[in-house]
């Protein structure tokens, strides 16, 4: 009976959080935009009216029309088809960076926050990494590893690891001193179980919120690296490589840059607004003000 009641309470809390989240119009609109962007990216092979890689010199630099909704680029490729196909890679890079940064950041944060002996070393490592601007550190890592999609993910994952590690460390320092953790120690519960069950499960909310911000930062950073020519290969359609390719036609064929740039703005802004909404809803102190 207690287990059933606990399950019902957890389900009620999740439903209440969802209701508070969608009650904010900005968050609701942001969620709809994200769903549309992700859906268009996943369904790109069926939604694209043209082959995103097919060259057609006769149709180069065509303005938006009924045939080419977003116009064509300097090689006659359909910009709309390239935008939705490029979204698959840009969003995949952002999601992969979140996963990698979460794994590394959670591990470093838990080690630094729970084990006092390792705190000094890990904290200095985190501070050293955060002393460099994100884009400069990413450029350095990609230059060392070589320009490729995998290396961009690895570089950005390393760059954004300290952001998550600091939050996990700070929260762990508080949780490790709470009575239920002390009780688990007194009962002889193994350390790995205390960390994984009693500590980590109470860090889900800040990790989830920070993950949405890292997702947005990663999309921007990938676009920046590709724009500078040190990220993904120009042959691979991402929003960043499309903007890089269209910069020389600014003023002549602005649509080559405008539409992938608009996709970046919409995705990043939506992720930031959803992250703000999650932070307000998941934080009990802020939830009371809603």
UniProtKB/TrEMBL annotation:
It is a multi-pass membrane protein. The chain crosses the membrane at residues 27-48, 91-115, 135-160, 255-278. Residues 91-275 form the ABC transmembrane type-1 domain. It comes from Bordetella genomosp. 1. Gene3D superfamilies: MetI-like. GO terms for biological process: transmembrane transport. Pfam families: BPD_transp_1 (PF00528), OppC_N (PF12911). The keyword Kinase does not apply. GO terms for cellular component: plasma membrane. Keywords: Cell membrane, Membrane, Transmembrane, Transmembrane helix, Transport. It is found in: Cell membrane. It comes from the Bacteria. Belongs to the binding-protein-dependent transport system permease family. This is Peptide ABC transporter permease. The keyword Transmembrane helix applies. SUPFAM superfamilies: MetI-like.
